Amino acid sequence: MQVAAPEREELRRLAELRLDRPVVLSLYLDLDPTEFATPPARATAARSLLDEADRQLRERDGLSHQERVDLRASLERARTFLERELSADGARAVAVFAAESAGLFEIVKLPRPVRNRVAIGRSPLVGPLASLERREAWCVTLVSRQAGRIFRGSPDGLREIGSVHDDVHGQHDQGGWSQARYQRSVEKEAADHLRHAADVLFRHFRRQPFEYLLLGGPGEVVSDFESKLHDYLAERVAGRVDVDVEHSSAEDVLEAARPRFVEVEEQREADALARVEAGSRAVAGLDAVLRSLNERRVEALLGSERLSAPGSICPKCGLVAGAEERNCPVDGSELDHVDDVTEPAIELALQQSAEVLPVRHKLDELEERGGIAALLRF
Question: Theoretical Cys-Cys bridge with 314: which of 23, 92, 190, 328, CB 3.0 to 4.6 Å?
């Protein structure tokens, strides 16, 4: 199973999965190698998570007998996977979504650590995945006359996901017509290599799109490579990094790229918050944001990862409201209480193809506006 951040369409599919009753079990297991590097450590973490899921199932109020049976079956299937079948294989975390009665059992191996979570609800808990998808917005590609290397990640870390190596002959100094023909041959080999590297990068982009691209390598080579990029890639180039192409580690590349990562993310957050401040098709504060989400008007959801607020959700239509609401204004149904309304808010944003933008660098400015805001389509 590939270790990768979830794609936007996968997130939307999971967010749109909504059952009549709360029988979806969502588990997030942290596999951060700094803490869980050995099989015994991972096994201990899995047992702890499963014990917490068992406790929540036993203490959950309002479940029918059949729902408890379904949840117990889902938990046992998750237990079998986590205790007997889990192989880290480079994963920093794993998410498990199970609903036995609906035939749902999905495993997502993640490239970043997430905190351990257990949730029982009408749909999979996708908020942590949405934040992770945003952090995988960057690609760094290094090219030389013979090699190419592709990295994916964010200011939190990079991982190498692909490489290209082609045989390109070096120059010689024989002179004359022989030298000219040989030089043309070498230049063609170099150009073919860069086209090959550009094709490999585009295939990766089509599998898992990214928003920003940094390029590194000798100046003339990088310029030639950039000229061969597909338009979709060329429009995402956000700068260059100065780093050795063939011998740098992922940590070396991250150190060279991080300043540009942070600069672009800070500017993006500043632009979004400026739009909120100006009130240009934007709202701030929990009530206004929930109202806009229910009206399907949200283009981008800006959130603080520190924000947590109680709320309500309609069991029939999925409307999300503040904690003080008791009945759905659409269908009159009694609303279900949720401890943290930001999770269903994220799900609702994904369902309408809105971008989820966790704010980190301009957090104080966002929290002055209630810790949550939205850019609107209309």
Answer: 328
Residue ending a domain, among 255, 271, 287, is: 271
Cα 91 from Cα 30, distance rounded (Å)? 9
Are 128 and 117 in contact by the 8 Å Cβ rule? The answer is yes
| pLDDT at residue 155, rounded to an integer | 82
Helix (H, G, I), strand (E, B) or coil at 70: helix
**203 three-state secondary structure:** helix
CA distance 275 to 47: 46
Between CA 1 and CA 109 the distance in angstroms is 7
Give the pair of three-digit tokens for residue 245. 């192409």
Domain range spanning residue 364? 279-378
Helix (H, G, I), strand (E, B) or coil at 312: strand
- The string of pLDDT tens digits covering residues 300-324 is 999 987 888 999 999 888 899 999 9
Q: Is 226 helix (H, G, I), strand (E, B) or coil?
A: helix
Backbone angles phi, psi at 104, to 5 degrees: -100, 125
